Amino acid sequence: MSKEKNYQLADFASIKGTPCPCGTSKRAFVAPDNSVASMHVVEISQNSRVHYHKKMTEIYYVLEGEGNFELDGESVPVSPGSAVLIKPGCRHRAVGKLKIINVPVPAFDEEDEWFDD
Questions:
Q1: Which listed residue, of 24, 56, 73, 100, carries a Cα 20 to 30 Å from 42's Cα?
Q2: What is the mean pLDDT of the chain?
Q3: Per-domain boundaries in the chain
Q4: Stated pTM of the model
């Protein structure tokens, strides 16, 4: 009898990048059997778009670079080690040459990306 593993493992080196409002995202743990949380490594592009989520909360953690997080119209300077918790409804984007970890809770759902324009 085979026992199902009680964990999941991701290798970001083998995950293909996907275009997203912030730039390019490598998404782990996005699967129909996981609704808890996902984890993304995101390369921020210069033309990132302001967006928001109606259900997801996101945690951004800066790995590399310096720039700003725009949060409901406020520009907050960030550098490696900076983190922010972004609640549903907060219009946001990252600006600058940044590499971040993004943890969406619940797990990422592309149907929960909204734009004002």
A1: 73
A2: 95
A3: 18-109
A4: 0.93
